[in-house]
Amino acid sequence: MEEDPVEAVQWIRLAAEQDHAEAQAMLGRLYFVGHGVPEDYSEALRWYRRGIEQNNPKAQFYLGLMYYNGHGVPQDESEAVKWIRRAADQGDAEAQFEMGGMYSIGAGVAQDYAETARWYRRAAEQGYVDAQFVLWMYHYEGRGVPKDPVEAARWLRMAAKQGHADAQFKLGTLYIEGDGVPEDGAEAVRWLHRAAQQGHTQTLEMFGDTLNELAELDATLQDAGGGSGPQGDFDPTAYAAGMLDSQFNNLLGAAEGGDAEAQYELAVAYAEWRDDLGEDERKEQALVWLTRAANQGHAGAMAELGTLYMGTDDVMALRWLRPAAEKGHGGAQINLGQMYAEGLGVPKDDAEAARLFRLAADQGFAQAQYNLGVMYGRGRGVEQDSGEAIRWLRLAADQGHPDALAALQRTEPAHTLPSSPGATEQVDAAEQYSLGRRYDYGLGVEEDDSEAVRWYGLAAAGGHAGAQYSLGLKYGLGQGVEEDDAEAVRWFRLAAEQDHAGAQFLLGDAYEIGRGVERDLDEAVRWYRLAAKNGDEDAAELIRSLETWRCFDKTDLSRRTPLVTLARLGKRGGVSVAGVDYSTDFRVEGLDRRWNFGEYEDGWPYALLIKPNGSGLYFDFSSSDDGTAKPSQFFECEQSGESAREDVGGPLESQPPRRSRQGEQLGSSSDCDIEGTVDGQFEGWDGDTLIKLMNGQIWEQSEYHYEYSYAYMPRVTLFRSRGQCKMWVEGTDEPVGVRRVK
User: Fold this and answer.
1) Contacts of 702 (CB under 8 A, 6+ apart)
2) What is the 3-state secondary structure (H, E, C) of 196-240?
3) To the nearest whole number, what is the mean pLDDT of the chain?
4) Cα dihedral 269, 272, 274, 280 in deg (nearest 10)
5) Quick one: DSSP state of residue 141?
6) Which of 381, 395, 689, 724 has the fewest CB atoms within 10 Å distance of its CB?
7) What is the pLDDT of residues 610-633, one digit of tens each?
8) Taking the CB of residue 462, how many other CB atoms lie within 10 A of it?
9) CB-hemisphere CA count at 13 Å for 73?
10) DSSP 358-424
């Protein structure tokens, strides 16, 4: 059937008009991109809002993107966050990934790498490949999460298995270096070969050198080729493919000859790296060879088969787990013990469960040690014995089992820390805070907001500033507790008074917008100053942007009683008109400065604009049908007070022109001979694109150019040409002029 976008729209519209929420979101998206219908932002908004009435997450996400980019609605990062967060909270992986990106750059929220990693993890756990790829970097660099090369490699492998070429390339290099994975030349070649098959430029450029490095790891060309190196022109891609085929054919031959170990390895090959077959056929072949190995008594194959059947066919699970457990396979003993503990396919038998857990625990399996400790603590299947419970929990905790540490604290609060064998200190607030973070971000345990709040609360009560800050976030977001802005402010204040910069920033934000406290810009500025002094760059940027104005009636020559006062912090600020205070949106329009304010469904009903000569104009759009109005009142305005103190760089008048991350002017470009990587996604050049690099720099497009080119974390090269900085982004047609803004 030939593609017919117009016909598709007709059917989608029919469903949408019958209140099918997904169809409404889809129809809105078609109007947004102009596919099968004319591009029409107002129609897109109409259908998104109808989908939102049914709480459709895609409609919420798409509306959030419109607010983020200012398409068909005023650009409003806070409103964007509201809608994207709603979609993310409903489990939309794309929205969760976008939330991670917004926390990464501080768009509409305070920049917070821990929150970034949390949202990326939620998307990654749903198989969202871009989130898996970026999460490896966060774990590798220790950004927002503990630095952990092994955990980093785990996420990288997930992305690589889904065909992410950058992940395949990076995983190959990790195997060369033995970084987070064992040094393994064959594995390196396998993943680099996959990346090369997709035309990954960096892999193709480096592949020859990579093979030389593999030779240093004894994966030499001569060994892999059967004793003689390749002759003449060498094609590394063809060579790698041939090496993999040879490895597979050797396994196949041995497996067909009845070798149980080869049959098991062949099943693994089909499941993990044989990529020339469809997914269903690969799974079918993997199951065939796994069964053949299990039928020959291969313990690993039997344990694997039993695990596959758990939860779907208890009879088959028991059939394979029992003989594997009898052969001493620890994983099978744990899973079989779990079936007896829960009565899955067998009568519930705690004594048998405890026996099986002990067999695996004696082999050093941490999960079995933890399970056995819990059973001794509760007297299930064994006589209750707190000493034995502590002994087994300590053994599990010494291997880093996080649930064991938590259980140990509950069982024996005064016990020495199991993570420090022989230590004499008690489990203190720092360890409680660490436990809270594990549950918060799912670090080795299942993510559990309520459990995170419990541990944060214990640590916060003990005076731990990081825990107080984290607990404030939980109350502010309503995660694990009922949302309570006042309670969030209380914990932020306690942490802020201990000079926690992040808490000081969020406390300033609360005062600025009046969330959980009465709105007070002076108090907001005070906390922003303290946060900036303690190293918070976002707070420093806000303080540098601070400006206050007074506007008088044009006939008031004494200038004693301002009719209007205005303040600006970044893109937000405040306006006081005749004693009534409003939160505002701040914009720079050419050389004019504009404060938008008031409650309105699709925009701002009022605006105050100050021109460079100090004249002020008041606009009332509340009765306008087309969004235009003539100024209805005129003022004389003057800037008042200090814009910023010396503790963050001196008064505004003494600063060079600057530009905040939202887009106001920030100054001249610096030297631009740089190679780097975009921090997040790149969607092309749209006339005023802002690009943040992994080194923290932010660059703004300064040259007229429009080009769509989506990529995630592409490489960039900056260079000077004819007196200006040029940036070339991987995958785009040409370099574009830019200026550095941070």
Assistant:
1) 724, 737, 738, 739
2) HHCCCHHHHHHHHHHHHHHHHCCCCHHHHCCCCCCCCCCCHHHHH
3) 78
4) 110
5) H
6) 724
7) 887 788 899 888 887 777 888 888
8) 14
9) 24
10) HHHHHTT-HHHHHHHHHHHHHTSSS---HHHHHHHHHHHHHTT-HHHHHHHHHH-TTSBPTTSTT--
At 202, list the tokens: 């960096």
For residue 48, give Cα distances in angstroms to 7, 17, 29, 140, 191. Answer: 21, 13, 8, 38, 42
Q: What is the spatial distance between Cα 196 and Cα 275, in angstroms, rounded to a whole number? A: 14
Residue 712: in which H helix or E strand, if any? strand 711-712
Count of helices and strands (H, E) across the chain:
30, 18
Q: Answer left, alpha or beta for residue 36, where phi above 0 means left and psi between -120 and 50 means alpha.
A: left
Token code pair at residue 470: 């984290």
Name residue 563's amino acid.
L
Helix axes 260-272, 299-309, angle to 10 degrees: 40
| Confidence band, pLDDT 50/70/90 cuts, at residue 687 | confident
pLDDT of 426 higher than 60: no
Average pLDDT over residues 127-144: 88
Q: Tell me: the pLDDT tens digits for 519-544?
A: 888 888 899 889 888 888 778 878 87
DSSP class of residue 717 equals E
In the block, tokens 């070798």 appear at 259
- Distance, in Å, from the CA atom of 146 to the CA atom of 712, rounded to the nearest integer, reads 23
Question: In Å, what is the CA distance from 695 to each residue of 542, 668, 671?
Answer: 21, 19, 15
Give Cα separations from 234 to 173, 229, 240, 330 (angstroms): 21, 10, 11, 46
The answer to whether 44 and 17 have CB atoms below 8 angstroms apart is no
Average pLDDT over residues 485-494: 92
Residue 229 has pLDDT above 50, yes or no: no
Mean pLDDT, residues 405-420: 47
Neighbours of 229 (CB within 10 A): 12
> Would you state the pLDDT for residue 299?
87
Q: Which of 13-17, 433-437, 671-675 has the lowest mean pLDDT?
A: 671-675
What is the DSSP annotation of 145-164? S---HHHHHHHHHHHHHTT-
Question: Which has the closest alpha carbon to 306: 295, 317, 322, 294?
Answer: 317
DSSP string computed for 595-608:
EEES--SSS-SEEE
Report the pLDDT averaged over residues 381-395: 84
Each residue of 293-329: pLDDT tens digit? 888 888 888 888 888 888 778 888 888 899 999 888 8
Crossing angle of helices 501-513/537-545, nearest 10°? 40
Given phi > 0 = left and psi -120 to 50 = alpha, else beta, which region is 338?
alpha
The CA distance from 369 to 375, in Å, is 10
DSSP-assigned letters across all residues of 103-116: HHHTSSS---HHHH
Instruction: Please name the residue that has the structure tokens 């821990």.
Output: 114
State the pLDDT at residue 244: 54
- pTM of the shown model: 0.36
The CA-CA-CA angle for residues 280, 286, 288, to 5°, reads 105
